[in-house]
Design a protein that fits this description.
Helix 2 packs across helix 3 (62-71). The protein has 2 domains: 1-34, no CATH class; 35-85, no CATH class. It has 85 residues and is an alpha+beta fold. The model has no long low-confidence stretch (mean pLDDT 78). 2% of the residues are buried. Helix content is 39%, strand content 12%. A two-stranded parallel sheet has the order 1-2.
Length: 85
């Protein structure tokens, strides 16, 4: 469940290889990462970010933080899909 709504689980590799317009609009997707930290280590990394005041929509939004906590990567698909190509 995603936000009390059903969500589709999609593999990270498949997600990044599909075009955004091929994903079903209005559907929540939970990305299953191919290579990521354990839940315990992810939680420790998340605790490390508590109190930081570096929020910036383009460079450090909540998705950047979540992806960093889980994978160590600094990215935001929201920002990538929003920017003109």
């Amino acid at each position: 469940m995603c936000c009390d709504r059903p969500c589709s689980v999609i593999n990270e590799t498949e997600y990044f290889h599909r075009k955004m317009n091929s994903l079903k609009r209005g559907t929540f997707y939970r990305i299953s990462h191919d290579d990521c930290y354990t839940d315990e280590y992810t939680a420790l990394r998340a605790e490390r970010t508590v109190g930081e005041e570096k929020y910036d929509f383009f460079e450090q939004n909540c998705e950047h933080t979540v992806v960093w906590c889980k994978t160590g990567l600094h990215s935001s698909e929201q920002v990538i899909s929003w920017r003109p190509h």
